[in-house]
Amino acid sequence: MESWLPFFVIVASVSIILQTVILAAMFFQFRRQGRRVEQIAEEFRTRVMPILGRVQILVEDAQPKISSMLSDATEITRVARTQVQRVDRVMIEAVDRLRLQLVHADQILTGTLETIEDTGAKLRKTLWGPIQSVSALVRGVQVGLEFFRGVRMRRPPESPAEQPDESLFI
Q1: Is the entire prediction scored with pTM above 0.70?
Q2: Which has the closest alpha carbon to 141: 152, 133, 129?
């Protein structure tokens, strides 16, 4: 076993040296990559920082304008709501007034038609009644005159075909 001991020591030493070389290579590679990342980060900062500065300035300039626009929009909405409410009230009042006027016009028209109808009925009674009476009187006088004339003239009896249809009435 003692013969193997120097062999294991040599193998262990070689593996430790190999590990050290690999670790040193990794260290230098990471260091080089770190520098590259720092360069990229610095390049990114140099390019992005002016853009961010401009964006910051734009936001600072736009913020009061946006606030003003929002307050104006709020005011416009409030005024529009008030105007719509006013128009609604005016329309309701106009419709109510129109309804009242229509009811009033209907009452006037109904009253006028009833008055015309009553006037017509009274005219019929007042004028038509006497006219019918005078007409009946005139008719009576005519019949009387015809009767007296008929007695004087003594007409021959009428044929049955010429007789009036008075016998048909009951």
Answers
A1: no
A2: 133
